[in-house]
């Protein structure tokens, strides 16, 4: 009994020391602090443990997003396809496939639609709006003199200019998705703010018009309605129709072509519009046909810059009226000279 008592006491003291070291009570922590030993909390023990932590697995989308094959710019990741210029196929693309991709572009389709519409409008005007077509459907009466048959021929021409140069392109711009009628440079603000530019243009052109009007080729061609000087009524009716066709002409060349194409090719739409504009002047005296290139470039650039065709309409009407009056004066056919 005497020997077993000290051993029992030693066992109890050993058990108490183990509790102070390994247990989570405050007595063991205070004991370590007294001895100057830093204590480790259970969290730190787990954090500093060498046991590997369990990382949550990424989702399928995350694995695909971070996979090397999701980077098309990496030639190694894409299996070397990028080195051949085609990430989907190792074979080079044919011209036909490239053309198909190009034709799918909405911008190219819009440009093509504008060009096809312009060609169709010019074709209709050339063959439907001609004097021969009107004479075929409405020939002059043989035994009854019609003093206004020639004026109706000119009215037929003006009508088809309004249809070809205004109605058809305006319908296309209004109905085609992505195109807008206001893109045709119909703003009045730019014209009102820069009206003086068009006045200066007419002032510069006036001496040239007067000098050219002295040519027989000029005053024998104008007015395009030969009986415009017969009376005030003839002159006013003709000049009114003439001004109306200039509105349609400016809408077509400086509005539909310049405004519509400038959304896709910028200022290059101006020289594009000048080419067909010069071609419609081939039937007129050659100085006017040559001057149409300069006038088309200037008026086209101003319409593109100011987003307005109305200055060109005013200049055109003023120049046309001046040319008609000068031609009538050289021939002595002004209406106020008749009794």
Number of helices: 15
Straight-line N-to-C gap = 165 Å
Summarize the biggest pleated sheet.
none
Question: What helical percentage do the residues reach?
Answer: 55-70%
Question: Helix/strand/pairing class, anyone?
Answer: mainly alpha
Unreliable segments of 5+ consecutive residues? 1-5, 21-26, 42-49, 68-90
Helix and strand pattern: HHHHHHHHHHHHHHH
Strand % is under 5%
Q: Mean pLDDT, rounded to whole units?
A: 79
Shape: globular
What's the number of extended β-strand segments? Answer: 0
Radius of gyration: 44 Å
SSE topology:
Elements: H1 4-22, H2 26-35, H3 42-47, H4 60-66, H5 95-103, H6 106-127, H7 131-137, H8 149-175, H9 189-193, H10 195-213, H11 216-221, H12 232-265, H13 269-279, H14 286-306, H15 310-331
Helix pairs in contact: 1-2, 6-8, 6-12, 8-12, 10-15, 12-13, 12-14, 12-15, 13-14
Question: Could you name the key traits of this structure?
Answer:
339 residues; mainly alpha; 15 helices; 66% helix
Describe the structure.
The protein is an all-alpha fold and 339 residues long. The protein has a domain at 106-337. It is 66% helix and 0% strand. It has 15 helices and no strands. The chain has helices at residues 4-22, 26-35, 42-47, 60-66, 95-103, 106-127, 131-137, 149-175, 189-193, 195-213, 216-221, 232-265, 269-279, 286-306, 310-331. The longest helix has 34 residues, at 232-265. It is globular, with a radius of gyration of 44 Å.
């Amino acid at each position: 009994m005497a020997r077993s008592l000290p051993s029992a006491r030693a066992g109890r003291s050993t058990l108490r020391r183990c509790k102070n070291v390994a247990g989570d009570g405050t007595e063991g922590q205070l004991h370590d602090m007294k001895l100057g030993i830093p204590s480790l909390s259970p969290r730190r023990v787990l954090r500093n443990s060498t046991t590997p932590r369990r990382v949550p697995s990424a989702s399928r989308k995350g694995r695909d997003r971070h996979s090397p094959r999701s980077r098309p710019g990496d030639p190694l990741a894409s299996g070397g396809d990028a080195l051949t210029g085609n990430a989907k196929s190792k074979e080079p693309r044919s011209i036909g496939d490239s053309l198909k991709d190009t034709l799918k572009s909405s911008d190219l389709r819009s440009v093509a639609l504008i060009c096809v519409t312009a060609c169709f409008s010019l074709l209709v005007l050339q063959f439907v709006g001609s004097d021969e077509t009107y004479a075929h459907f409405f020939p002059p009466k043989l035994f009854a003199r019609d003093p206004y048959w020639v004026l109706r021929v000119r009215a037929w021409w003006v009508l088809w200019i309004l249809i070809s140069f205004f109605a058809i392109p305006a319908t296309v711009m209004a109905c085609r998705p992505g195109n807008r009628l206001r893109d045709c440079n119909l703003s009045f603000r730019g014209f009102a703010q820069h009206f003086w530019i068009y006045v200066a243009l007419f002032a510069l052109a006036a001496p040239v018009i007067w000098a050219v009007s002295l040519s027989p080729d000029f005053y024998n061609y104008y007015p395009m309605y030969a009986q415009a000087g017969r009376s005030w009524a003839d002159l006013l009716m003709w000049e009114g129709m003439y001004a109306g066709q200039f509105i349609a002409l400016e809408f077509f060349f400086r509005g539909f072509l310049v405004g519509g194409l400038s959304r896709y090719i910028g200022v290059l739409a101006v020289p594009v519009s000048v080419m067909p504009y010069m071609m419609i002047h081939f039937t007129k005296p050659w100085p006017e046909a040559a001057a149409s290139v300069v006038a088309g470039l200037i008026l086209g650039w101003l319409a593109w810059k100011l987003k307005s065709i109305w200055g060109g309409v005013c200049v055109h009407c003023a120049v046309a009226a001046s040319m008609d009056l000068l031609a009538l004066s050289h021939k002595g056919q002004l209406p106020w000279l008749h009794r």
